[in-house]
Amino acid sequence: MKYKMLVLDMDDTLLTDDHRISEKNKSAIAQAQEAGVKVVLASGRPTPAMLSYAKELGLHQNNSYILAYNGAVILDMTTEEVLFEQSISKEDIHALYDFSKENGVHIITYLDGNIIASSESPYIDIETQITGMPLIKVDDFKKAVDRDSVKCIMLDEPERLVEVMVKLKAQINHKSITTSKPFFLEIMQLGIDKAASLDRLAQKLNISSDEIIAVGNASNDLSMIQYAGLGVWVNNVEDALRHHADVVVASNNEDGVAEVIERFILEETLV
What we know:
The protein is of the alpha/beta class and 271 residues long. The protein is built from ten helices and 14 strands. It has helices spanning 10-14, 23-34, 51-56, 90-102, 122-131, 141-144, 158-171, 194-205, 222-227, 256-270; strands spanning 5-8, 38-42, 65-68, 73-76, 81-85, 106-111, 114-117, 135-137, 152-155, 175-181, 184-189, 212-216, 230-234, 247-249. Helix 5 (122-131) links the parallel strand 7 (114-117) and strand 8 (135-137). It is globular.
């Protein structure tokens, strides 16, 4: 099978634990693009927190795309035009805020390139460190969130979030709910996930799912792992998910993405 698209999750998949793209991964991605394979980044990250990495990999020079906010946004890297965006209404965000208060967890959302929060938490600090986006602490969350936004995250201890996710899914069943890290409970509009947006993009490019490799490590990657012709976990995948992929490769700190490219793209081009 000659694969035409390689879709990569970022945190804990493409990126090392210190949020870098290794030289080996970068070189392999460049070779894949030279071989004509479309490389797409698909992340729970906000768009601004993906752009520098996408440009580092030359996606803007290779007519490629990014899927941000777990697929709530599709961005054309050549023009930086938003091709697709699906938001959560401000009324629903206010309801999610009420739920978070009732259940004693933190909540954030995104407006104008900023992270909006009304509480303080080490987990909120982690999100600001990962994304590099400014954090605006507000006194009145509902007043500050005066329009729609593409995503909310509830944050707390992983054990607590497992309980909260069960309650949230039972109480608010009209949203797409997943986890990217054990302490990040991510909420998007119903029907939004990485696979759904990947399918939109693949149809636009006339690429079938069988011609796609998807690589990830976490629950928010599961939909695209199952959608792709070749679904791949890096070795640091959550144990409960390991059996869902076709292949498991080296970890994010051991150039797992390069292994995928070498085994399933570059070797194929030599045949």
